[in-house]
Write a structure and sequence with these properties.
Number of helices: 12
Radius of gyration: 22 Å
Shape: globular
Largest sheet: 22 strands, mixed
Strand content: 35-45%
Structural class: alpha+beta
CATH topology of the largest domain: Anthranilate synthase
CATH class of the largest domain: Alpha Beta
Oligomer: single chain
Number of strands: 22
Length: about 475
């Protein structure tokens, strides 16, 4: 049950307390108010003292919408190595009654919502790098800033239990507004943070490609995506605010995300939307097949035309489009997609791109669509189950949250998930970066290795390791 309230916050809390005691169930109260413009990255940094390890950052392409969460008012996670994690997260979220108090017109991305992500494959034995990450983890922030176009909104959330007291709950909302210290992160333009890099198990990865192409030629499957990892160790501690700021500047056509899990920061700039839902309108992005950017505009155009005519990349892209359209046909009506792909250009790479749109059928939620689509052939392969099994068998790494869904959904089933590629896991002065390639019958290890080098550039540059200038 969701009730939108327009009376005072004190009365709302009182009603929530009475409901919690009567039902013996916790109730979420969210207060939303429009505020003066706040820089989202500064707001994110301002939570370091009180909320370190419990923050998230989310920004859509061209920063049309940015959300920053501070504090974990509620955590819903799943350690089970099963695919029931999607249903568990959704079921737990629905268990809470939610009351929204707003002084302004309702805005998407405000009020009670969960932000978080899933692991790529819960059935693969977890490596040391990802041992502190659950197979699924979502958080309701204590305080959240939402910037939408030229307006800013502050949401304060409180989980009210049957044992809570009215005065304590009221203080929560008051203190959440008062306790935000001013904090302006400093741009560190120093070039002295040198680093060493280690490419892990490259020979095994090349061997995996050779085995995969042999299996594809033997008609075991059509495509499989194989990823590799690179570890960096810097002289000094990595500044996560600088990394996010660099990604915003250098990757304006991508989704920028950051999720803190204790001392770990999972950060990335992905061009790939998995699925977006607003009311019953659903949108997905097919992104597969890629080539580098040109050094001149003429060179860039020539490379783009080459990609649009490249048989290997067109086949790879068509597999993704077919899978996503098939999923939409099951979960949506009025499914539409262009007949030919277009180009999506980021700073370092250009992709074949096809949007798919539809209207959600009744009974199909955003999370159910995330489960249906993950992993797309762009990140797993095709057919899906055979590709996942092949990745478990051949890939010489554990993906953790890399290449998995990360995003948000609210109390009315609006939300958006992306695929966590072009990403890195940061802790202290160390970073692990990841990149993968779609392997089909014509794949060559040398060209696939070169493609991963291009895909590693966005995070490497944001860390200050390549093509980086500080203005």
């Amino acid at each position: 049950m969701i009730t939108t309230l327009d009376h005072t916050i004190k009365e709302s809390i009182q009603h929530a307390l009475e409901e919690a005691k009567q039902t013996n169930q916790s109730v979420i109260v969210s207060r939303v108010q429009e505020v003066d413009a706040i820089d989202p990255l500064h707001f994110f940094a301002s939570g370091e003292n009180l909320y370190l390890g419990e923050r998230f950052f989310w920004s859509t392409p061209t920063a049309d919408m940015t959300m920053v969460g501070l504090g974990n008012e509620l955590v819903i996670d799943n350690e089970n190595q099963t695919f029931e994690r999607f249903q568990k997260i959704e079921k737990e979220w629905k268990r809470f009654n939610k009351r929204v108090v707003t002084e302004s017109q309702k805005q998407i991305g405000t009020g009670p919502l969960l932000f978080g992500g899933f692991s790529f494959d819960p059935k693969k034995e977890k490596g040391l790098l990802w041992e502190e990450f659950s197979e699924a983890k979502f958080v309701l922030p204590t305080i959240m800033l939402t910037k939408f176009q030229n307006k800013a909104y502050l949401t304060i959330n409180k989980v009210i239990t049957p044992l809570d007291q009215l005065d304590t709950c009221i203080r929560h909302f008051e203190q959440s507004l008062e306790n935000e210290p001013p904090f302006i992160y400093q741009k560190d333009c120093e070039k002295g943070n040198e680093f060493a890099s280690i490419e892990l198990k490259t020979a095994e990865w090349v061997e995996a490609i050779e085995k995969a192409t042999a299996d594809i030629r033997a008609n075991e499957l059509d495509k499989v995506v194989l990823a590799r990892e690179v570890h960096l160790e810097f002289m000094n501690k990595i500044n996560p605010y600088q990394v996010i700021g660099n990604l915003q500047k250098e990757q304006p056509t991508s989704f920028i995300f950051g999720f803190e899990n204790g001392l770990h920061h999972f950060i990335g700039a992905t061009p790939e939307r998995l699925v977006k839902k607003h009311e019953n309108e659903v949108l997905s992005t097919c992104l597969a097949g890629s080539i580098k950017r040109g050094k001149t505009s003429d060179d860039d155009e020539m490379l783009g035309r080459q990609l649009l005519q490249d048989e290997k990349n067109l086949v790879e892209h068509a597999i993704v489009v077919k899978m996503i359209k098939d999923a939409f046909e099951e979960y949506c009506y009025e499914v539409k997609a262009p007949n030919e792909p277009a180009l999506l250009k980021t700073k370092n790479i250009q992709h074949l791109y096809t949007p798919v749109k539809g209207l959600a059928k009744q009974g199909h939620s955003l999370i159910s669509m995330v489960e249906k689509l993950h992993p797309t052939p762009a990140l797993g392969g095709y057919p899906k189950e055979k590709a996942i099994e092949k990745i478990r068998e051949l890939e010489p790494m554990h993906r953790g949250w890399y290449a998995a869904p990360i995003g948000w959904f609210d109390h009315e089933d609006n939300g958006e998930f992306v695929v966590a590629i072009r990403s890195g896991l940061i802790k202290g002065n160390r970073a692990a970066l990841f990149a993968g390639c779609g392997i089909v019958e014509e794949s060559k290890p040398e060209s696939e290795y070169y493609e991963t080098k291009i895909k590693l550039k966005p995070m490497l540059s944001a860390l200050g390791g390549a093509d980086h200038e500080c203005n």
